[in-house]
Amino acid sequence: GAGVSQSPSNKVTEKGKDVELRCDPISGHTALYWYRQSLGQGLEFLIYFQGNSAPDKSGLPSDRFSAERTGGSVSTLTIQRTQQEDSAVYLCASSLVAGGQETQYFGPGTRLLVL
Amino acid sequence: AQSVAQPEDQVNVAEGNPLTVKCTYSVSGNPYLFWYVQYPNRGLQFLLKYITGDNLVKGSYGFEAEFNKSQTSFHLKKPSALVSDSALYFCAVRDRGDNNDMRFGAGTRLTVKP
Questions:
Q1: What does the pLDDT read at residue A64?
Q2: Distance of alpha carbon B41 from alpha carbon A89, whole angstroms
Q3: What is the predicted pLDDT for the residue at B42?
Q4: Residue B98 has pLDDT above 70, yes or no
Q5: In a domain, A109, yes or no
Q6: Which of A56, B47, B54, B82 would give a disulfide with B59, using CB separation of 3.0 to 4.6 Å?
Q7: Within a domain: residue A54?
Q8: Which pLDDT score, from 0 to 100, does residue A70 have?
Q9: CATH code at A16?
């Protein structure tokens, strides 16, 4: 595709429910990243995928958060038993390959509100 | 681990005046440095990056940034601000030895007034 796409653009859920957020990276990009942006905060790294390698999950804030990437393309971030503090914008980014100088291209984000 | 500081939460400038958005970094080795801009309800858009070579990097929309190793800074600049430049700006750093750990600053909100 022309850019990184994410769905849904907005999600309102009740505390305790599970949510799934989807990311479609730029075609041909092998690296995919998830970030969380809370109100007034910078970006918090969550998880990173590179090709078929095991993902780097070091940024996931709790075991309620998980992500998978199927077929090396689309990724789904799942938050189980959502809490109000999970409310944030979840951003996905992809890059051609993993590498320090590679530019990450971001999607528009999913705005999650947990009531 | 690397880190980034954007000392100003908010920068206000008048249209037509030069603008500077400050960024300082900390890495154990040599850095790759990035600037991104975020417009309301949008994802981050890449502006420019410093990899190596010339310390002055030119990017999109007339922005430029200067890498200063001695001051560990990578300030974003533009000679003449436009109202449409009003947005949230993020600086990011990555250590050359890391493939995945990019650290972002907290962001600086730039407001350009007509």
A1: 97
A2: 9
A3: 78
A4: no
A5: no
A6: B47
A7: yes
A8: 84
A9: 2.60.40.10
Lookup: tokens for B114 = 């007509």
Chain A positions touching B34 (Cβ under 8 A) are 103
- Taking domain B3-113, whether its CATH number is 2.60.40.10 is answered by yes
Q: How many structural domains comprise chain A? A: 1
Nearest CB neighbour to A100, from listed B90, B94, B104 = B94
- A31 assigned to some structural domain: yes
Task: Judge: A100–B43 Cβ closer than 8 Å, yes or no.
Answer: no
Q: Where are the domains of chain B?
A: 3-113
**B34, B100, B107 member nearest A56 (Cβ):** B100
What confidence tier does B17 reach under pLDDT thresholds 50, 70, 90? Answer: very high
Q: Are B97 and B82 within 8 A, CB to CB?
A: no
Length of chain B: 114
A75 within domain boundaries: yes
Residues of chain A in contact with residue B102, where contact means CB-CB under 8 angstroms, are: 45, 104
- Domain coverage including residue A79: 5-101
Q: ∠ at Cα B30 (A57, B19), nearest 5°?
A: 95
Which residue from B43, B97, B106 is facing A106, i.e. has the nearest CB? B43
Contact B36, B47 (CB under 8 A): yes
Query: What digits encode the pLDDT tens for the residues B23-55?
Result: 999 988 888 999 999 988 778 999 999 998 899
